[in-house]
Amino acid sequence: MLLHMHQISKSYGPVTANDQVSIELHQGDILAIVGENGAGKSTLMKILYGLEQPDNGTIYLNDRQVVFHRPSDAMAQGIGMVQQHFMLFGSMTVAENVVYRKETRKGLLMDHRRNQALVKELSQRYHLPVDPQAVVDDCPVGLQQRIEILKILYQDAHIIIFDEPSAVLTPLEVEDLLKTMEQLSRLGKSIILITHKLREVMAVAHRVVVMRDGRVISVSDTSETSLEKMSYEMVGRQIPTRHMTPPTVGTPLLEVTGLSLKGEPGTITLHDIHLQLRQGEIVGIAGVSGNGQSELIRCLTGLQAYDTGQVMLNGTDVTQASAGMIREAGLAHIPEDRYAWGSAPAATLAENALVGAEGRHPFSRSGILNLRQVNAHAAHLIQDYDVKAASLFQQMASLSGGNAQKLIVAREIARKTPVLIACEPTRGIDIGAMEYIHGQLIEKRDQGDGVLLVSSELSEIMDLCDRIYVMFEGRLNGEFIRGEVDEKTLGLYMLGGNRHAPQTALG
Ligand SMILES: Nc1ncnc2c1ncn2[C@@H]1O[C@H](COP(=O)(O)OP(=O)(O)OP(=O)(O)O)[C@@H](O)[C@H]1O
């Protein structure tokens, strides 16, 4: 057996993140590990990659016991990890990035011709096409991930851990990634895939480990399990199918007229955006990420000035207003990056749950915080959204990724504003929590508020939105009513409608 993690246990204070977890990996395996947020998947991988030490348990590689004190120990034994946040030097070339780690030690980094030839050979051997001379910052996200994979292969990894690799990819890039994994497996590499996307598990993995509460619940061949069985094992209950009642729409809550933004070099330009969100509806902005959605949301939330256009929010003109003024006028915002904008990682859960409401009744009087109310509010959100946490006073950074996301979503929905802008609200979230969050968004809509949902997950857009705008290259490229459009048509518009769509998108 190539890898055997045997009875691994790890606790953080009162939290048992891994409880006697055992997994086995053979050469050429694609092993998926799934489980709800906080189940202990990342902890197990951090232990395998030398980022954390287990309290108990043993790792065997080729039947020999190994101990990893740091990632370089794991890498030296052929274990590599493709992290969610890429570790690349943006201003350097693809070739320099791929060879950097190994060659700086030997002083060979400056031999550009040799490096390019090496990377070319490597990319051909593994069928991972790249231009060795391209600058990383000019490469789309999917290609940057491919560079990360090549970097790991260049260091002779034979076990590759993918940590939620598709979260940042477009649908076509996901297809490429799945093919890449299959190729690597055929060429004898072994893969561990951590993901919440059960369809990808079924498409690519040979075996799947389900974890819950730090323990292994089941290990199955994917040919012998199903989406329903996996999700039941993950969350311990059946996930109901949701039926939405037709919307009862009222007056406009958010009206954007003629908004244009001439971007900095390297960013998207927004062209004459017109959109409307009314009471009682969920309106989606579908699109492949990187087509101007982030820029538009930054303009609407006061984080970015624009060149022309008017924005009305709940009857107030908030054109070019500050973020604080816009929030006051009735906007809540779940940002797409939970750490950069959504939370303060070093602050406590109670503090993070309060952000934006600190000056309000009942949390504050004459500038003094009522800590009892603040803590009760946080405890309430944590319970309602099932945030897996040990204490109100632990740091936000110590929550698992999905649980941090749940707390941000909870905080913004709890503000009960007339308008909520929700950007990728369920990224990194398990299916049980996703179902709950979708329910909360629908409830908000049914109460007569408006939700603007920005999502690169087509299924999320199709399931939730009463109306859908498609964004492509900085323009709103189409508008559809629920039920009058299918995924294929939306997908086509996401690639530029019938103007630019490549043939592959049609099939
Ligand atoms: N450094 C830490 N300090 C305290 N608790 C931690 C720390 N790291 C992880 N935990 C806790 O350990 C548990 C397992 O977390 P882990 O990140 O392994 O879950 P996960 O399955 O990867 O979740 P997700 O799907 O949300 O990424 C969680 O309850 C988490 O809060």
UniProtKB/TrEMBL annotation:
Domain spans labelled ABC transporter: 3-238, 254-498
Keywords for this protein: ATP-binding, Nucleotide-binding
Xref: PROSITE patterns: ABC_TRANSPORTER_1, ABC_TRANSPORTER_2
Molecular-function GO terms, alphabetical: ATP binding
Protein name: ABC transporter ATP-binding protein
Lineage: Bacteria, Bacillati, Bacillota, Clostridia, Eubacteriales
